[in-house]
Amino acid sequence: MSASLAILAAILLPLIGAALLSTQGDNPNKREGITILTTIATFLCVLTLLPEVLDGHRPGVELIELFPGISLAFRVEPLGMLFALIASGLWIVTSLYAIGYMRGHHEINQTRFFVCFAVAISAALAVAFSRNLLTLFAAYEVLSLSTYPLVTHHGTEAAKRAGRVYLGILMTTSILFLLLAIIWTYHLAGTLEFTPGGILAGHVSGTTVGVLLGLFVFGAGKAALMPFHRWLPAAMVAPTPVSALLHAVAVVKVGVFTVLKVVIYIFGLDLLTSTGMSIWLMYVAAFTIIAASVVAIYKDNLKARLAYSTISQLSYIVLGAALANTWGVIGGGMHIAMHAMGKITLFFCAGALIVVAHKTEVSTMQGLGRKMPWTFAAFGVGAMSIIGLPFVGGVWSKWYLALGAAEAHQIPLILVLLVSSLLSIVYLVPVVAQAFFKEAPAHGHDHPGDAHHGSDENDGENLERKHILCVLPPCITAVGCILLFFYSDALYTLLAPIAGG
């Protein structure tokens, strides 16, 4: 298969799968079979592009020229290659998890769920492979629209209200800020193409750089930078598989991926470094890192706690972009992978607790580690990666970000990274500690915040066996967190060219 054909196949296969899925409303086995086959085929198409990118090639394909010099087109560069591998690879394990979760939780509208999921993945891959700002913007908006039905999946008043917040913030920021930034960029540079070294040097200077950077950063509302972050915790009303992939990987990562790609290929690192106009962004990101971590500590609902953790962790990537140096952008790029693997593990575990033990509140999980040892062991590994401890991947991205802060002579930002890790310990470790080291409450004293009360609580050590598809995926991604520690050099090799100008 040629590279151009592989790019198109990777983007179109999820759409073809979605069309086939829409015909299988009454046949869950066929629906789930189509889903798994589509995920595997999509990942293999993405994987075929990796050798060419590692060899220094940048394969691409142009669909249509809309205006002179402006096309809907795709080109694969290292940062997009990494994001595409993450999104398509984790789609496989998340689909397995979603099958177990949706069946185990007796969810409604399962066909619509898998259809929208596939369309969202197609949009995420289109963002990853975008050759220019116009293509990225079009795919960005498709992603917002295709995930709205997933956020409102339950159809409750709370879900509808969350959907309004979700779509309202994301569409408003993208149209008012991101689209304006794109139009302004074309006016200044005469092109929208992502170009190594940037396209704005010589066309813009001074405070204009800072204003344009602000429009791009806040226009990418999916990055959840404060104050445009409320959509993410609101979206946690969605089924946990949505939270796991779309809000721990695809949707939120599209936001920070956009910020990182714009900094590298539109502004260029030299322009931001020479003007100093990204320093304000460093400290906005630093504030978000600390503030969201503090809020997370006080959230008893596990998914809400993880949502604010995600807001904090996303700003690590924004910080890496704002540092505008080699270590910063490599650290930010690596954190896309490290956070994705760690946070999807945590969300998988949160969903398993809902399906298997009917628990949603952290304060109700005493003693559950003895009934669900694999789930909480996986949670522990994911937590270690988010904290940034050795032998799991998260330590490397934080290390490179700290080097980037040192290179930029921003010592306070190193302290921010250290404090953030300590705060992560405060809101993540107690979940595991009380599950393994606290006694379970006497039967019949369940917390009123529990999602549901059922007979499974009497099953003791057999609790996980009935829901293997909810327990196996977090174990797989927990192993992935460990592998990222030992094979981080492969990520570094892939990402090194993006900082070379």
Order of adjacent strands in the largest pleated sheet: 1-2
Structural class determined from secondary elements: mainly alpha
Tally of DSSP helical segments:
19
Question: Tally of extended strands?
Answer: 2
What is the approximate shape?
A: globular
Order of helices and strands: HHHEEHHHHHHHHHHHHHHHH
Rg, rounded, reads 22 Å
Overall mean pLDDT: 88
Intertermini distance = 30 Å
Key descriptive features of the protein:
501 residues, mainly alpha, two-stranded antiparallel sheet, 2 strands, 19 helices
Could you explain how this protein is built, in words?
By secondary structure, this protein is an all-alpha fold. The protein has a domain at about 280-500. The protein is about 70% helix and about 5% strand. It is built from 19 helices and two strands. The chain has a two-stranded antiparallel sheet. A hairpin with a 2-residue loop joins strand 1 (about 60-65) and strand 2. Helix 5 runs antiparallel to helix 6 (about 135-150), helix 6 packs antiparallel against helix 10 (about 240-265) and helix 13 packs antiparallel against helix 17. The radius of gyration is 22 Å and the shape is globular.
Topology summary:
Blueprint: H1 3-21, H2 28-47, H3 50-54, E1 60-67, E2 70-75, H4 78-104, H5 110-128, H6 133-151, H7 157-189, H8 207-219, H9 231-234, H10 240-267, H11 269-275, H12 279-297, H13 302-323, H14 326-357, H15 373-387, H16 394-407, H17 411-437, H18 468-486, H19 488-495
Antiparallel strand pairs: 1-2
Helix pairs in contact: 1-2, 1-5, 2-4, 4-5, 4-10, 4-14, 4-18, 5-6, 5-10, 6-7, 6-10, 7-8, 8-10, 10-13, 10-14, 12-13, 12-17, 13-14, 13-16, 13-17, 14-15, 14-16, 14-18, 15-17, 15-18, 16-17
